[in-house]
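User: Good morning. I'm curious how flavin-adenine dinucleotide would be positioned relative to this chain. Could you predict the structure with it bound?
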Amino acid sequence: MIDTTVAVVGGGPLGLAAARALGVIGLDCVVVDAREPEAAAADPRVLALSHGSRQILEWIGAWKGLDANPIRAIHISQRGRFGRTRLSADELGLPALGHVCRAGDIVAALRDAPGGGVSLMHGSRVEGTRCEGDAVVLALDDGRSLRARLAVFAEGGIAEQEGAILRDYGQHALVATASVDRPHGGLAWERFTPEGPVALLPMGEDYSVVWVVGDDEARRIRALEDDALRDELQVRFGGRLRFESVRIHASFPLALRLRRTPAGNRRVWLGNSAQTLHPVAGQGFNLALRDAWELAEFVRREPQDPGAASLLLRHARSRRMDRLATTAFTDALIRIFCARGAGIAAGRGGALLALDLLDPMRGFLARRMIFGARAWP
Ligand SMILES: Cc1cc2nc3c(=O)[nH]c(=O)nc-3n(C[C@H](O)[C@H](O)[C@H](O)COP(=O)(O)OP(=O)(O)OC[C@H]3O[C@@H](n4cnc5c(N)ncnc54)[C@H](O)[C@@H]3O)c2cc1C
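Assistant: Good morning! Here's the predicted structure, ligand included:
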């Protein structure tokens, strides 16, 4: 039996960030990950990190040295229709609206972050948990057990049988790299089309692309040759940029899942294992980092027992508004911007135009995406 104060299930970017945040305040943490170390560091997803996420990564010592590409402005529009809005870092007085990083690089930075108290077990899967007095015991697939005061779940998803609300979007996100005909200058694009949004995020000299399509379309598009693939993206995105080459790295099925009870019995679920969101607007990991940071804040204020029922209940309550508002916001974006019909498209165009003309509304939306619930008045 291995004894620790906190056991973290999942060694992806969130599990490691949660362990580092708890390590910074002096707790011993053991992170158990089913994958081997190379697998997490090879994660092809590219994450747009908000300014608030950057601050959290700085606090836990994982920002310095991270290959982070600044987003200076975002252009939001719908293909073939009027109306667009542009958010810029300058108008908010920030150096950048956010930064784009490879998920694998974030994992590596978190593993190398300074500070003791965090140890990693790779290639072991947690198969069950049970409460024993004031501890929780985790059973591993290799026969070993881990005893902790608190188990933090950061497994990256929610199984269907775990009481989550589910909406299958019938879509896949294709993750790709694209080169275009001009320097991006830190400008990101969110382009809504009836088939799904296309996001371009500045990454090195190129763009990292999150291209959302229907399930059947994803299979067809993945089978295209290079030139046909480039032409397909050009048609989907429209003529505002000219694509020179496109390469697809991975594809993810998209669904909305929300765990009804994200804490209890010395266990707490964070990030994707508490809520799995559509990647539109890049909110999943940003929300997850806020979940993890606030947990560490609660434990810092009451360090006697990190798994105490009252502490976990208060953490769940304090996270409720941010979780539900971010979930509802991303789901509404997909419902509104994927709905077909000329009247609906005109309404969306009007909303984008109004957003562009009304500085306070634009500032409010930007702050909400950058800081989460902290931005509510
Ligand atoms: C296409 C796409 C684009 C996205 N873009 C953005 C973005 O721009 N911004 C943003 O904020 N978010 C974005 N997201 C969301 C973001 O990718 C996720 O929130 C984040 O990567 C999840 O990290 P994680 O550590 O929770 O999970 P994962 O990276 O999935 O890691 C989970 C780990 O848990 C381990 N594990 C699972 N079960 C067990 C077990 N029983 N025992 C031990 N280990 C276990 C797995 O091996 C894995 O290593 C995007 C998502 C997608 C699909």
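Residues 2-67+104-164+257-338 form a domain with the FAD/NAD(P)-binding domain fold (CATH 3.50.50.60). The mean pLDDT is 88.
Let me know if you'd like a different ligand tried.
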